[in-house]
Amino acid sequence: MPIPMNRGAFALAGSSLAFKTGTWRSAKPVHVHAAAPCHGACPAGEDQQAWLALLQEGHPQQAWESLVAANPLPSVTGRVCPHPCESACNRGHYDSPIAIHAVERWLGDQAIQNNWPYPRLPGSPRPERIAVVGAGPAGLSAAYHLARRHYNVVLMDAMPAAGGLLRSAIPPTRLPRDVIDAEIRRLLAVGIEFRPRAALGRDITLEELRSEFDAVFLAVGAGKSRHWDVDGAVPADLHEGLGLLREWLAVGAIPKPNAVVIHGGGNTAVDLARVMRRAGVRDVHVVTASGLPGPDTDPDDVLNVVPRELEQAIEEGVQFHPHRTINRLIMRGSKVVGVEMVRLKKLPDGHGHKARVSFEGTETVLHVDMVVPAIGEVVDPTGLGAILNGRDFIDTDMFGTIAGHPGLFAGGDCRGWIKKLTNGTVSAAIGDGRRAAEGIDALLSGRSPMEASRPALPFADLNLAYYESAPRIALPTLPLSQRDDSREIEGGPDTSQALAEAARCFSCGNCLACDNCWTLCPDNAVLKTRETCSDGSHYLFDYEFCKGCGLCATECPCGFISMVNDD
């Protein structure tokens, strides 16, 4: 019933409630929980904004739990991931990106130190048994995410210890072995049975696995070297990059030529180059078709290595030759005495893509006595003939499903397209294992698999007036004179640094609870709630009185409020 008023009543407290000014509105504010760009760029699927927010609020264990909901190996990825999330970070357009890898590493190390238990999802034990073949990053991730869902998981690997390429291909100077041991030991303790020395095609067959288990996930990696030659020429003493690195990690042996060319553009090439420099090789050259980071290099053409590792390699004397390939081997008999390089450039190929083209007249010669190709690997077909059908990689959809083989899934480096999309990083393999676990759970639960997706919040949607410039933390690095083959070169942040770095987060696309919308609304049309609302905030719009002025959206620091047409 309308409130009766006379002229004098218009000044009484509460009398304005009789005027539903929301009828004037042509646009209205809504909460839009957009994804932070870091989240969209993360191959593992982490929501960095979410766990950085929990750390800002003083809840480190909850922050870690939010992190491992996607990535169960933060102590590992905090050290070895190239972190494309930092390249995508909106803060990079303001001063410098957040050191997400450093905070991730700190949270992972805190979990190990304090023995925080891995969280499980609500639910009852499942009767189904699932085999995971391969205990590298993809296999560990899939086993963990299935165990979180209360499945009976058996993890198998040909090696005596779990870890895969984390142990066999990454030097301890980047990833200490006690970190691998602690992270994997805690992960397996969630209820995963581990069977070592179980090689596919030697100790077990695919047919046996499919008859014994309700689903099988293949995370066998890519362990067979690609064939390499230069116009048919192959040195008699040819060594492949990953094989050399594995041999060095296993027995400590490494060739010591006077000068070596490593042909490749990934972490294996750079890791091997640094090992050989520390072993006393005088001249170590890395010849790569990719470019070095810089304003003149396209983002999709940058050397596929962790940027800080590249900087350290240059400090240590490794010589890089970007946008080059080996055009000719100069040999004396069957022994290499030099290589001829030629310049490359990416040009349109007429089919909507770009291809690298060599330029005659740009040849240069390097005098070396050893060439090491590090150009990648393919899947070892042993035990997988029926799946590969002569191909180098296993074809799957994004959830790891292998067409024509119900109950059989694959992921990690054994999938060809993962390298095209993410260059085969540890984080990409972890994300692959997580999605495969979702695919397996969906199959066994009789539903369709799901992958959440939200649009990323652009930098232009932030209100920078509410943020102060703050320097990115600097991490300690061993000086050149103290670097050897065992000590970790880059250190992590201390507690105060980790908290300071978390505080730099813009909270892109998520409510900061700053009260701007509540205090600045001229119509008191924003209501503050004691309990959290369904959208995760503590604010509601009272559309009966909101005139659609847009002040709340304009003054929202983190782009959580958008104006939409109100028809």
Q: How would you describe the overall organization of this protein?
A:
- 29% of the residues lie in helices and 16% in strands.
- With 567 residues, it is of the alpha/beta class.
- A five-stranded parallel sheet has the order 4-3-2-5-16, with helices on both faces. The protein has a four-stranded parallel sheet with strand order 9-8-7-14, with helices on one face. Strands 10, 11, 12 and 13 form a four-stranded antiparallel sheet that branches.
- Helix 2 (48-56) runs antiparallel to helix 3, helix 4 (74-80) runs antiparallel to helix 6 (100-114) and helix 6 packs across helix 17 (495-502).
- It starts with 26 loop residues before the first strand and ends with a strand.
What descriptors fit this protein?
Fumarate Reductase Iron-sulfur Protein, Chain B, domain 2, alpha/beta, 567 residues, 16% strand, 4 domains, FAD/NAD(P)-binding domain, 4-stranded parallel β-sheet
CATH superfamily of the largest domain: FAD/NAD(P)-binding domain
Q: Count of helical segments?
A: 19
Low-confidence stretches: none
Count of folded domains? 4
